[in-house]
Amino acid sequence: MLKPEFEPLDPRFHALVLGNVHLERLYTGCRWSEGPAYFAAGRYLVWSDIPNDRVMRWDETDGSVSVFQQPAWNANGHTVDRQGRLLSCEHRGRCVSRTEHDGRRTVLATQFEGRRLNSPNDLVVKSDGSIWFTDPTYGIDSEYEGDAAPSELGASNVYRIDPDSGDVQAVITDMVKPNGLAFSPDERQLYVADTGATHVSGGPRHLRRYALRADGRGVQGNGPLFASLDAGFFDGLRVDRHGNVWTSAADGVACFAPDGTLLGRIRVPEVVANVCFGGAKRNRLFICGTTSLYAAYLNTQGATWPA
Ligand code: MG
After folding, report:
1. Which of 86, 160, 190, 276 could form a disulfide with 99 if both were Cys (CB 3.0 to 4.6 A apart)?
2. What is the mean pLDDT of residues 12-40?
């Protein structure tokens, strides 16, 4: 029997979830949880508590939680690169940074065409080592989650950091407030959330799916609409190995098939901002929900490792 927090809306959802598994709350006490990233070698997960300017650490071996970093540049999205290093989107730093194996912080991107980035929000690593990140203005819109400042760019784009040259190129320039993003398992598609309704009345609260160029270094076309919401926002998202999209939504986590069908939901008692796969078999979905960190085992696995 599925626990009531798992809500199937399409028969295909049953193959992705497990009976008698329940949603677990691993920690509560944050102001706004975001940016989960799981480290397989250390069996721990880090995530952001943005307004409290700290990064938290949950230890899978004993369930303990500690402060990993504070102050933390009002970090938002995180991921782990192919070498096992932590990558961070920093609101207050207005950059993308990497924590090296020896603990040093390396800044990877601070500007585009001579103007400062707004406030990098979320990021993903492609198998070629390139880093793709979104740059809306949320971290400079107020003092709450960064330092308030005008946008030097006057636009919110998606960028790619070249793994060889370190060059920062704009790859998507037709979104209002690009936010979470993730590649399909074959890396031929890129899903990007647009949360532009925060700034534009009637603006986007949807996911778009962009086809990658043949060389894999950019996208082609306009990125057709993949899924939309009437209320709330898609923020962070991840893709499982079957290509299903697990995305934050107002009332929990929504799961969409690659054909765009809403397969089902995981109801979470707080607004969800982001998710990631983790655990030794990467079959556990970690969920950042406002004040808390949640997790649920699934009958599927993250598409990529690191996830
Ligand atoms: Mg986000």
Report:
1. 86
2. 97
Residue 302 domain-assigned (yes or no): no
Mean pLDDT score of the chain: 96
- Direct distance between the N- and C-terminal alpha carbons of the chain, in angstroms, rounded to an integer: 28
Q: Is 96 inside any structural domain?
A: yes
Task: Give the distance (Å) from ligand 1 centre to CA of residue 20.
Answer: 31
Task: Report CA(179)–ligand 1 centroid distance (Å).
Answer: 5
CA 195–ligand 1 middle distance (angstroms): 9
- CATH value at residue 254: 2.120.10.30
Give residue 113's pLDDT.
97
Q: Ligand 1 centre from 115 Cα, in Å?
A: 22
Q: Could you tell me the distance, in angstroms and rounded to a whole number, from the CA of residue 203 to the centre of ligand 1?
A: 17
CA of 44 to the centre of ligand 1 (A): 21
- Which of 157, 248, 168 lies closest to 196 in space, CA to CA? 157
Full domain range(s) for residue 87: 6-297
Say if 305 falls within a structural domain: no
pLDDT, position 250: 82
pLDDT tops 90 at residue 34: yes
Q: How many domains does the chain have?
A: 1
Q: Is the pLDDT of residue 305 over 70?
A: no
Q: How far apart are the CA of 283 and the centre of ligand 1, in A?
A: 22
What is the reported pTM?
0.97
CA dist 52 → 49, 63, 144 (Å): 6, 21, 9
Question: What's the 118 CA to ligand 1 centre distance in angstroms?
Answer: 13
- % of the chain beyond a pLDDT of 90: 95
* Token reading at 89: 């989107």
In a domain, 181, yes or no: yes
**12 alpha carbon to ligand 1 midpoint, in Å?**
28
Contact status, residue 266 vs residue 250, Cβ threshold 8 Å: no
306 — pLDDT class (breaks 50, 70, 90): low
Phi-psi region of 243 (alpha: psi -120 to 50; beta: other; left: phi over 0): left
